[in-house]
Design brief:
This protein is of the alpha/beta class. Helices cover 19% and strands 30% of the residues. The mean pLDDT is 95.
């Protein structure tokens, strides 16, 4: 089984979006460089961010998101983002009407069932869990091995929290990666067991 990583861009005060679900400048680092991060030509980062991020992205087999993120992105039009093979959507609702049943999206009720499905699909590749409510639930359930944050120099003051509804203390190891890119600080922590 591959590693389970909670991941997202975050403000220095711990938010992944404002109160209206807008990320503001959190993704500016993904377009402020000169090295293409993917084949779209839209994502361009510094060489330092490319070396760190591309190596991580290449290991992802499945991303787990909540239904809220799925709805906000319109399901990425049925194509998983960043070249990922599958997306597992944690939801209590059925797939949207008219949704292409061949699209590599899997709608699962509950975080434990979502993790089981994601690990089955990912094999020995990484299972990525989007930061926010679902990520926080996965961390609280002891299902996350590593936390990766792309910390952006902005203060939101309020909004959607990186760790979502986590209401108990969870210890992380010391960071084993601290990498400064342009307008972003990449951090990686193992979850203490």
């Amino acid at each position: 089984m591959g590693k389970v990583v909670m991941y997202g861009s975050v403000s220095v005060d711990g938010f992944i979006a404002d109160e209206n679900d807008r990320p503001g400048p959190l993704f500016d680092w993904l377009s402020g460089g000169d090295v293409p991060l993917d084949g779209s030509g839209e994502l361009k980062v510094s060489q330092t961010s490319y070396d760190y991020t591309r190596a991580y992205w290449d290991r992802i087999g499945v991303t787990i998101v909540g239904r809220h993120v799925f709805d906000l992105t319109d399901g990425w039009d049925g194509k998983p983002p960043g070249g990922i093979d599958h997306v597992v959507v944690v939801t209590h609702r059925p797939r949207p009407e008219g949704w292409d049943p061949e699209a590599p999206f899997h709608f699962v009720d509950g975080v434990e069932a979502a993790m089981a499905r994601a690990q089955e699909l990912a094999g020995d590749r990484t299972v990525e869990v989007a930061a926010g409510d679902v990520g926080g639930q996965m961390l609280a359930a002891g299902l996350v091995d590593e936390v990766r944050m792309d910390v952006v120099p902005v203060v939101f003051g309020s909004g959607k929290r990186y760790f979502g509804p986590v209401d108990a203390q969870h210890l992380l190891e010391d960071p084993d990666a601290v990498i400064q890119g342009d307008r972003v600080l990449h951090l990686r922590y193992r979850v203490r067991r």
